[in-house]
Write a structure and sequence with these properties.
Blueprint: H1 35-46, E1 50-57, E2 60-70, E3 75-79, E4 87-92, E5 108-112, H2 117-127, H3 129-163, E6 168-172, E7 175-181, E8 186-192, E9 195-201, H4 205-218
Antiparallel strand pairs: 1-2, 2-3, 3-4, 4-5, 6-7, 7-8, 8-9
Helix pairs in contact: 1-2
Amino acid sequence: MSEGEGNPRPAHGRPTGRRQPLSPGERTMNTPLTVAELAHPIALELGGNWRPQPARHGVQELDHAATFTHLDGRQLHLSERFDDPGHLHIRGAFPATDYPFRRGERDTVRVAMTEDPAGIAARIAADLIPAHRDVHERVTEHNRAQAETRRDVEEAARDLSARLPGARTRVDGTSAFVYMNLEPGEVRIGLDGDAVSLVLNDVPRIIADAVVFAVSRFLPSVQTPEDEYGEYVDGYAL
C-alpha cells in the first residue's frame, strides 16, 4: 500500500458498511452521494478505459472508498477520509517497490464530494493521471531492473558456491553472501548488484589464489590480469 493511504474510516455519521443506494425519490439535498455511488459516474466521465471497482473489507463493500482500474493495470484509489468529511481524495496506486519516490510523485487530488462528476473527472484527468502515468512507468522499469539484478546475483552466488567446496550462500534481494569456514580461516564473498567484495582471513595462499581466480574469472564485472595472484591479507577487496 502506498504511503499516505491507511484504511480510511467513514466520516462521523456514515455507516461503516455499504448501504443500499437511495432511489431518486428518496434522495434529498441533505443526503450526499457516497464515494461508492460517485465512482461510476466519475469513471464514465473519464472514458471507457477506467473501470470502477468497489472497495471491500473482507466480503463487505464499503461506502467511503472505491478503486478505478485502467485497462493497462494502473489504479487510482478514491476515499473519503474520516478526518476530512465531505471531500474526495484521489491518488495513484503503485506496485510494491523500493523505488525512491521524490516530492510530488505521490500527490493526491482533493475535491468536494458535492462537485459534479464531470468536474471531478476533469480534475483527475488534468492534475493526477498524466503525472501518475509517468511515475508508474518509472516504478515499473525500476522493479524490472531490480528483478533482473536479483536473478543475476542469485545465479552468480549459486555458481560461485558450487565452485567453492563447503561454501554456504545467503541471498537478500540484490545482495548475496558466500561464506566458507576453513577452521580457523574463513572466506567471505559479498555481491551487491555489480559490486563485489572479498575478505580472506587466515587463508592458506593456495586457497586464496584459487578463490581470487574463481571470483575474477567468473564475474564479468571483475577484471584481473592473467598473471595476477591473490594476496594473503586480512582483507582483500576487488
